[in-house]
Amino acid sequence: MGEFELIQHYFASQASVRDDVELGIGDDCALLNIPAGECLAVTTDSLVSGIHFFADIDPFALGHKVLAVNLSDLAAMGAYPRWVSLAITLPEANESWLAEFARGFHALATKHNVALIGGDTTRGPLSVTVSAKGTVPARQALRRSGAKAGDAVYISGSLGAAALAVQQRIHNLHIPDDALQTCQQRMDYPQPRCELGLALRDIASSALDLSDGLSGDLMHILRASGVAAEIELSTLPVDPAVVQSVTPEQALQLALGGGDDYELCFTVPAEHENRLHELATSLTLPLTRIGAITAGTPHITWYHQGKPVELHINGWEHFHHGETGKTS
Q1: What letter does residue 272 receive in the DSSP assignment?
Q2: Residues placed in the known binding site for ATP
């Protein structure tokens, strides 16, 4: 198939239909109807084979993941996901591979009612770029800059499992089969917390998604807000699969610096904390308080069972590490 036949067969024919899409795939541009009184939220991520995912990844999983990481960014802003565009570079037109990739992509798009509105295909080393668009009512977007002293710091879900799957693959670690299965699932099929992001609009003072590790990502909130934080390590929601597979020190490293969690980290004023238990129950999603925002220059003070400890953990930064296969 040529480029246009590929687009039509695997993408245009399966794209979800939304009333707010005036014109989708098939023209030079898509035409979108943005609801009155709302802002357009746009995020773009590129995933490259051998850097952000292993070259032999299941194509269905890759289709899921490239969309999931973008929807996670929209969730962190409290944006309602609406549209997505896709640009994929392929070394060859492998139709069976492309069919599974498209199936994984469209399965998640359908789950979140997101319409594929355009994109591009070209020949070259395998890479995928996705741009996701959503909307959020004016002045209601969650940002990194709203945290204030006295706010509590929360994490959704659990940490470290995807990072352990990456390390197991690179270093051939021996971990229990059930734990390995859990970790691989978290690595290949991250779940964007879209519903949580929407619910946090009038609860949280700041938020972001955890892609590069809690220790580094939390600093983005602290710098943007001009505050500090105190974090209690004993309360970190480290994934049970990680706890049973590695030493406590290794588990801590994976949870704080491993990345690839795609959970939300957010801050909540004291007057809104009582709403989180009900929210966690309704979403069937753990929301764990791990510390508090304090006044001061941006830094994190780590505690273990109430006693301050010194840590040297860095999150993932592109071009600063050389491990091929580390995901973003």
Answers
A1: G
A2: 119-120, 144, 211
Tell me, letter by letter, the H, E, C secondary structure of 110-132.
HHCCCEEEEEEEEECCCEEEEEE
Q: Which residues are annotated as a binding site for Mg(2+)?
A: 28, 43-45, 73, 120, 209, 212
CA distance 80 to 134: 5
The segment(s) of the chain belonging to CATH 3.30.1330.10 are 3-137
- pLDDT band per the 50, 70, 90 thresholds, residue 15: low
CATH of domain 3-137: 3.30.1330.10
Q: How far apart are CA 162 and CA 212, in angstroms?
A: 11
H-run or E-run covering 87: strand 80-90
Which residues define the annotated binding site? 28, 43-45, 52, 73, 119-120, 144, 209, 211-212, 260, 316
Write out the two tokens for 297.
């220059």
φ, ψ (nearest 5 deg) of residue 155: -130, 135
Amino acid residing at 156: S
Q: What is the pLDDT of residues 150-195, one digit of tens each?
A: 999 999 999 999 999 999 999 889 999 999 999 999 999 999 999 9
Indicate the pTM of the whole model: 0.91
CATH code of the domain occupying 152-309: 3.90.650.10
